[in-house]
Specification:
The chain is an alpha+beta fold. Helix content is 27%, strand content 38%. A three-stranded antiparallel sheet has the order 3-4-5, covered by helices on one side. The protein has a two-stranded antiparallel ribbon with strand order 1-2. The radius of gyration is 12 Å and the shape is globular.
Length: 71
């Protein structure tokens, strides 16, 4: 079984601001071209990207991960 995690770091100092595992049933939404969010059973998480390209790459990866996790 593969386990996927999202680890978000601040650009300025690389401090970890988000560390979350992706589990079955996670819902994903691209709210804007640079802000993406997802939710599990208990919470909503979000990331704001510095560029649209970074956000698009993240979104494409999330879709592949969710396909894998949700089977």
């Amino acid at each position: 079984t593969q386990i996927y995690r999202i680890v978000g770091r601040q650009i300025q100092d690389h401090e970890v601001v988000l560390n979350h595992s992706i589990s079955k049933g996670t819902k994903y939404n691209q709210a804007t071209p640079t802000f993406h969010q997802w939710r599990d059973q208990s919470c909503v998480y979000g990331l704001n990207f510095a560029s649209k390209i970074d956000a698009q790459e993240f979104g494409a990866s999330m879709m592949k991960i969710l396909d894998s996790v949700n089977g």
